[in-house]
Design goal:
Elements (H helix, E strand, L loop, with lengths): L1 E5 L4 H12 L3 E6 L2 H10 L2 E4 L5 H9 L3 E4 L11 H19 L5 E7 L23 H12 L6 E7 L2 E3 L6 H12 L2 E4 L5 E6 H14 L4 E5 L2 E5 H12 L3 E4 L1 H8 L1 H6 L8 H7 L8 H6 L13
Parallel strand pairs: 1-2, 1-4, 2-3, 4-5, 5-6, 6-10, 7-9, 8-12
Antiparallel strand pairs: 9-11
Organism: Bionectria ochroleuca
GO cellular component, one term: cytoplasm
GO molecular function: aldehyde dehydrogenase (NAD+) activity
């Protein structure tokens, strides 16, 4: 099968590309820059230059492919134009869904488990908290994607843990680690007893392949290997690795230090992936988050391969 992937040159995207190619699939990746195009070519993917604003290009790529994985997002514009970025995402989702109507092809949208952090232990059946402005816009995009399941599209949503860790990660854990190096301590909120789920990006890549191959229309899947690690334990591991103390701060102080990541760090997000594992026969096999931190994945010391 040939997968059209947006965000293909990103941290998770490259792992997904590699996973697909290693299992006999073809990949057409959208590349905004020459640098991104070169990354994809080195992996062995076909490249289409363009951006998420080029809806006609997206439609042509979909027409020549057997399905879509939508990982792309305008992260670099989110801080300055939050509402417009999410509006643009819904335009992309609508264009993709309409191009796939009555085809039976898979359409996989990337989401996050934080949108169900209100649940005591979130399952795939839990609905997002639409009252939370930090997460409701993502939930709207997810709902739009799933609406195409009623129009002959094998539409699915993959909720990713807030940390898809591994060497080369530039996400939440890396941001916390960079701030710890800068200020001389690693901050956590209150007693740090709240939780984050975690998964290695290579396990996420495998889940994308399995969902693309056999996931059911209208399904929500959870890319979660570890259901909930206390945030204090995570921050202490970061502090220990960089030789700085882990120090408790108020939520407001941590948000001042970390911005949006501070809001995420305040969430208590215990998440199950039991149904995902059963249905897709997905078994995470990579090392855990704390082991990754201890191995030097966020210091450049790791001896493990990126793939």
């Amino acid at each position: 099968m040939k997968a059209f992937i947006t965000g293909a040159s990103g941290f998770i995207g490259q792992a997904v590309v590699k996973e697909f190619l290693n299992h006999g699939h073809q990949v057409l990746g959208l590349a905004r820059t020459e640098e991104s195009a070169e990354k994809l070519q080195k992996l062995g993917a076909e490249v289409q230059r363009g951006t998420l604003d080029d809806l006609d290009i997206l439609r042509r790529c979909i027409a020549s492919s057997d399905g879509v994985i939508h990982l792309g997002f305008k992260h670099d514009e989110l801080a300055t134009d939050f509402l417009r970025v999410w509006e643009d995402d819904r335009k992309v989702v609508t264009a993709m869904g309409e191009a796939l109507e009555h085809s039976g092809k898979p359409f996989l949208n990337a989401s996050g488990t934080l949108i169900v952090s209100h649940a005591a232990k979130a399952t795939e059946a839990d609905v997002p908290d639409m009252s939370n402005p930090q997460f409701s816009h993502r939930a709207q995009s997810d709902k739009l994607v799933l609406s195409f399941a009623e129009k002959g599209v094998r539409a699915q949503v993959l909720r990713l843990a807030p940390t898809n860790h591994g060497e080369g990660d530039r996400g939440f854990i890396n941001i916390i680690a960079a701030k710890a190096r800068e200020i001389g301590y690693a901050p956590y909120i209150a007693d740090g007893s709240n939780h984050w789920p975690a998964v290695h990006r290579l396990d996420t890549a495998r889940l994308y392949r399995l969902a693309f191959e056999s996931g059911r229309a209208g399904s929500v899947y959870h890319s979660v290997a570890e259901e909930g690690i206390q945030t204090k334990e995570i921050v202490e591991a970061i502090g220990k690795k960089f030789g700085v103390p882990a120090i408790s701060k108020t939520k407001e102080e941590v948000i001042d230090l970390l911005g949006f990541v501070g809001h995420a760090l305040a969430a208590d997000n215990i998440v199950s992936s039991e149904e995902t594992r059963k249905e897709l026969k997905w078994v995470p096999t990579q090392r855990g988050l704390i082991a990754d931190i201890e191995a030097g994945a966020y210091t450049g010391e790791s001896k493990y391969s990126k793939f």
